[in-house]
Amino acid sequence: MAMLDSDTPADRNLASLQRFLYLGDDFHPYPRSVAYPFSLERTQLIKEFEEKGLESEILKEIKHAYKFGYHLGYEPLIFTLALLGHSSKIRIKEEALKVASEICTSAGMLLTFVHIYKDISKPSKGWGRAHRRFLIRWYNEKDAKDLAKEVTKVKSCHKWTHKDVLCMAHVKAKHAGNAAVLKYLVKGLEVAQKDCGSEPDAVPILDYLKGVYEVCHSTDPENVARLVEVHDLCLEHIPSKLLKSKEVSLCIIPRIPLHNLLELLPQFNKAGLLKPNSPHYRNGKNSNKILPGKPIVRQSTPELDEALQNLHLSSFKNVRHMEKHT
Known about the structure:
This protein is mostly helical. It has 17 helices and two strands.
């Protein structure tokens, strides 16, 4: 994100927006949380941009922050998009919802957007046409297998379920595979199999959903491990109590992203997978050993030293001036 010299009100507002998108707060030096709800001042900041007709700048900053990872959490981005989604300008509303479609790739992000959008809409209880179109696109434009995977990974968020969204927005599927997923979410597996089982495109999707259902209701670790292998399930599909099983843990570990894997190391250690005398530990050890000796020292060069010094000095430009004298 570009460094800004906050010499003008416009620069200061843009710097505040960038800080809010990154931290969820544009005032306190050390925000407590980047989670919704945010203070009313954040709404005022967005309104100031709207009054000046700079909504496109906000959308540009949101896309930039999302693309390059300039955010500690995604809720500030979603909150800002939800505010713009309520704009009285039809073009801005449609552009905001279009960006929301690009950003809300996961079911958790979608349900978070729905929660914030409806919260901002209070006391109104209805769903606007633009918002309905956004939801219909989300459930229809995804590949049926990807949709099934997403909605079974995150079934609810902020007290919203997919069934709530589908029923209130009257989402209808355009393809047989997606229809099977929506029927499963609203009516359950048995009804989905009965109503969609005759459609060739829906058969593999129903088989996948059946596998997820069996994993959630099974108590046999070996059977769960088999289903994980057959359907290529992920961590979110596994009940936490079954992760204590060595069979399930060994099956799911290769499918866990690295940052989640590090968080689960204590749990896998309790399962006995990291003990030095464990066969799993011995088989997974890296044969390349670090030889004893002095620690590696960074080789200093004038160019590297200058680059680090410039980076250090430029970082202070992102620190908001508190107008206090020491």
